[in-house]
Amino acid sequence: MEAHSMSGHVGLTGEDVGDHDGFRKHQNHHQDIIDVLQQIMAITDENLEEAQARKHALNYHKMKTALFDVLCEIKEKSALSIQGVQEKDSPDSHLMRLDNMLLAEGVGGPERGGASAAVVAAAAGGSPDDGTLEHAEYKEKLSQIRQIYHAELEKYEQACSEFTSHVMNLLREQSRTRPISPKEIERTVAIIHRKFSTIQMQLKQSTCEAVMILRSRFLDARRQRRNFSKQAVETLNEYFYSHLANPYPNEETKEELAKKCCISVAQVANWFGNKRIRYKKNVAKYQEEVNVYAMKTSGDVASVSSVASSANSPATPNSAFCYTPDGKF
DNA sequence: GTCGATGATTAACT
DNA sequence: AGTTAATCATCGAC
User: Coiled-coil ranges per the record (predicted)?
Assistant: First the structure.
């Protein structure tokens, strides 16, 4: 602050470089330099009060406001129009994508991540209650990431606002002695915010990556794979082998089987897809299964009554046990 | 640690 | 849209 008032003082006096002829010019320059040097030396002799007083006097000089306005106007007109520096669109949209993702993962928002994590888990797999152990671990790790993220974000925001207000105060202070329009302050603030937002973006990016890694480790459907319960497999196999001639359950049947097996319709479709192809690939290997389920559905009704009765519900008409182990679909 | 079984994913096809 | 076929990744028994 003091340094600035000093330079201002020197600049004012050093400005009266008249346009004389060439011979005198050299001498004048020389004289100027000596003057400036003397003034600089004089400054060290000045005490702070004197300097402040002079600054005060300058600030409240009756011509000051008028001159200042003119200076501002000149600057506004001559300044290289910085407003052409429109920030690029891509980082903004990129930031928005990251924000959306963090929000979706339950990291970005103010709420706890539990609910959305459950949604993610349900969408990925469908196994409703198993894997709670890993799920808990996942949630814990996610909340860890969340904590770190929010702590960092807060730190950045605080640093940003601190720095911004500092710069603004500085500029406001300086605007009393040099022409700085509020617009310029605004622009500077915008620049600061942009700089900080790139840091923020890096934070968000790395958080996203961490979440992705975590997700792939805990919630990826393939990793989370659990074998269906014995009963579920029984039900599915029963339908399959009792409809071996055409093992293609329609949507309704799939829904029913899904409900019975406590799995999703998609999982039923997966199961039938896998079963069909694997059966077809090696009929001999499944011959035993064919026999077992043929026995079950035709003979031993009592032992599998609950399963069989549900499999033979009205929506799945299996009046004919037309299993034809010829491998043709 | 290996290996077959198994559920999920994917591209290509109809 | 729904399937097939190949493939991936994990499970579970040994």
Answer: 139-173
Rounded to whole angstroms, the distance from the CA of residue A96 to the C1' of nucleotide B7 is 35
How many CB atoms sit inside 10 A of residue A116's CB?
18
Strand C closer than 7 Å to the CB of A135?
no
Q: Per-residue pLDDT tens for A299-310? A: 655 444 333 333
Q: Which nucleotides of B are covered by protein (CB under 7 A)?
A: 5-10
Residue-range definition of the domain harbouring residue A93: 87-218
> From the Cβ of A91, is strand B under 7 Å away?
no
Give A211 CA → C7 C1' in Å.
26
Domain count, chain A: 3
Work out if A230's Cβ lies within 7 angstroms of strand B: no
State the DSSP string of A160-192: HHHHHHHHHHHHHHHHTTS---HHHHHHHHHHH
In angstroms, the CA A251 to CA A326 distance is 26
Cα–Cα distance measured from residue A207 to residue A189, given in angstroms and rounded to the nearest whole number: 26
CATH number at A239 reads 1.10.10.60
Whether A327 is covered by a domain: the verdict is no
Could you say which residues 252-271 of protein chain A have a Cβ atom less than 7 A away from any atom in strand B? 263, 266-267, 270-271
Read off the pLDDT of residues A36-73 as tens digits, 9 standing for 90 and up: 778 767 766 666 777 778 777 777 777 777 776 776 67
